[in-house]
Amino acid sequence: MAGIEITNLKKSYEVEKREVPVLTGVNLKIPEKQITVILGRSGCGKTTLLRLTGGLEAADSGQIRYDGAHRTAFVFQEPRLMPWLTVRQNILFGLRGRERRENGAAADEIIRTVGLEGFETAYPSQLSGGMQQRNALARALAYRPSFIMMDEPFAALDYFTREQMQRELLRVQKTESCSILFVTHSIDEALLLGNRIVVLEKGKVKREYVPGEHGEERNLLDDRFIRLKREIIADLNEAGRG
């Protein structure tokens, strides 16, 4: 198994002295060097699954198995950049000693990869929202992770910037052969980005879709994607009635 294998993963939280189950037995295989999208209604457990898989929280029970040694990096909805650091300094932030020295030279290449050349010495307040998210993605890439965990990273952006960032992510993923686990509530975004789409319902995997490999830019008005979107909408509507 290359990537991540999740078996019978369960997680609950205590809310007002009562236990609320969020994940109720997730079974999932996440391949490497692809974009796997987690899709579902609000409260279905998408972010919880991401945080458990990335090691930010511990599961109540179940297993998460990586293929050998692994490093995970996160990109959140908010860029979470250090406002007193420049673009380049934010990219290297969190790396230590030898790792910082070794990746220092690579930072310039990462800056070119995410399209921030010419802004190396700019501060977050001098960047647009899209550029700040590019900086956050560059920081994740500098860590050389085996998986990048992305929690609705473009949700706060305007439509046009979001569309641009989606194209940029596909380009970076292809260039770097990244392994990405991507959470979204947008069906269109899932169809544009995902090699695989995993629909969550009531804390479990309801269904998986395989839109295909990324070759030419996907046209969501093609009959195949229209059919896929209708199937996914039907799944989510059924979950809402349950």
TrEMBL record:
The protein's name: ABC transporter ATP-binding protein
InterPro entries: AAA+_ATPase, ABC_transporter-like_ATP-bd, ABC_transporter-like_CS, ABC_transporter_ATP-bind, P-loop_NTPase
Alphabetized UniProt keyword annotations: ATP-binding, Nucleotide-binding, Transport
UniProt keyword annotation of Transport present: yes
Span of the signal peptide: none
Keyword NAD in annotation: no
CDD domains associated with the record: ABC_NrtD_SsuB_transporters
Domain of life of the native organism: Bacteria
Pfam families according to UniProt: ABC_tran (PF00005)
GO molecular function: ATP binding; ATP hydrolysis activity
Annotated ranges, domain ABC transporter: 4-227
Organism taxonomic ancestry: Bacteria, Bacillati, Bacillota, Clostridia, Lachnospirales
Parts forming coiled coils: none
PANTHER family: ALIPHATIC SULFONATES IMPORT ATP-BINDING PROTEIN SSUB (PTHR42788:SF13), TAURINE IMPORT ATP-BINDING PROTEIN-RELATED (PTHR42788)
